[in-house]
Design brief:
The termini are far apart. It contains no helices and 13 strands. It is mainly beta and about 150 residues long. Strands 1, 2, 3, 4, 5, 6, 7, 8, 9, 10, 11, 12 and 13 form a 13-stranded antiparallel sheet that branches. The protein is about 0% helix and about 50% strand.
């Protein structure tokens, strides 16, 4: 199943896990645009890259990955394609071979609803300059982001 434009929106009722995070990473599109990296990310106290997904409806799996590692999780999300909802359903997501070093963060989120894995979003962040790139796989080009470590929420 190929979708020309894939944007996912999470239905979340839980408390944000970033509230307890060691180092939330905040990325703002530059210049401003309607797209952003998704889901929100943070670095754990043990320097793992974590995704803010623990509050998702139906969440199962792992949300933190080390350099070179892979994780998989699932939850109920709404998928939009070309501005049209493709429905709210249980969706599997994964990150394989993540790069989490003092110099950079890189990962690709893939999704599946049982019919094979599809790449969704490619994120690359230079931790030394704070410049990042966000590319939805089925779209042309990438959005530039300015990223920084955010303030702790607690």
């Amino acid at each position: 199943m190929t979708l020309p434009r894939l944007v996912a929106m999470v239905l979340s009722l839980g408390i944000s896990t970033i509230a307890a995070a060691q180092s939330p990473i905040e990325c703002i599109p530059d210049p401003p645009s309607t797209t952003t990296h998704w889901p929100s990310i943070y670095l754990s106290r043990s320097n793992e890259l974590c995704f803010d997904v623990l509050g998702w409806i139906g969440f199962q799996g792992k949300n933190c990955v080390r350099n070179g590692g892979s994780i998989q999780w699932s939850g109920v999300i709404i998928v939009y394609a070309d501005g049209e909802s493709k429905g709210r359903d249980e969706t599997d997501l994964r990150v394989r071979d993540a790069v989490v070093t003092p110099e950079r963060i890189e990962y690709v989120i893939e999704w599946s609803r049982g019919a094979g894995w599809q790449p969704m979003q490619d994120i690359r962040i230079n931790r030394l300059t704070g410049i990042g790139f966000n590319r939805f796989i089925n779209e042309q080009g990438a959005d530039t982001m300015r990223c920084q470590v955010g303030k702790k929420k607690l």
